[in-house]
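Blinded run. Sample ID left blank on purpose so nobody reads anything into the name before looking at the predicted structure. Input follows.
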Amino acid sequence: MNKRKVTFLSAVLIFITAFSINSGIFARADEEYFYLGGIPVGFSLQTGGATVVGVSDIVTTEGVYSPSKNADIKVGDMILSVNGKEVTDSASIAYALKDCEGNPVEVKIERDGLFITKYVTPRIDYDGTYKLGLFLRDNLSGIGTLTYITSDGKYGSLGHPITDDDGKLLEIKGGTTYLCSIIGVMRGERGKAGELKGIFIEDRKIGNVTVNNETGVYGEVDKSYDYGKLEKVKVGRASVGKATVYTCADGVSPSVYDISIVKIDDNNTENKNYVIKIDDKKLLALTGGILQGMSGSPIVQSGNVVGAVTHVFINDPTRGYGINIEKMVANT
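Blinded prediction complete.
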């Protein structure tokens, strides 16, 4: 699977603002059972269109040409269509150019929120293929943690949105979630967030991806994935004190580690509702604290799932933030 891979978990310093939670969310969720996650997952996301990550020359029998550069197509532009054909990936551009016979093609792009039309003259390279001279990114992949699965087979994960390079919410057209195997750890240290290293297990599809929003990534579990053996829990409210986190730092199965919830702010608008501290010596020895890739790891207290890990403090990797679980449930 040839994909650009990132890990999902933000590194932050403390910042608090105010927000009002709909208390009815909790009342609904409290009546339901959920299957507890903590499972490492790999996301393959379709971003809709193909983003330009480089503009290249094309070497032809007649010389060297730069079709897209000459048409003022730039890095960061998103290609939406070519000659009226929707672009969803690199292959769809090749298909749209197949019968162009070297004539200029209409290329519609999105740039900084504006929709622009360019006309580009493709050139045929040495392998006989018409090209625009672009390097494209048409999907995004990364590692995170599945938080829970509902009784009717819907899941929630991450606890925060996947964003683009500018920090804006990434618009997706869909995607696939796979089981992921953690094969290495880059330990966290003061001033630098650590990271889980993992690989997709491509024949172990967990489900699809339907939503990426401010509280996480959501979808439906595939019929082939048996989640009935996972631990069943109810949603609960957190209190300051001892708790546990279900997360995986090696292989595919989560382990249970001791943490403390040291501060609660139900009204935080950035979904940083808990300040948590890793107490477990085994996890600290292995990872140094919270790592990128642990976002979505469920927080359990008094036998109930109360939240999920979302962020790590850059200045102290043993501490981080968590989101209230009912905020995630509301979007499932």
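Unblinding after everyone has recorded impressions. Residues 90-97 form the longest helix (8 residues).
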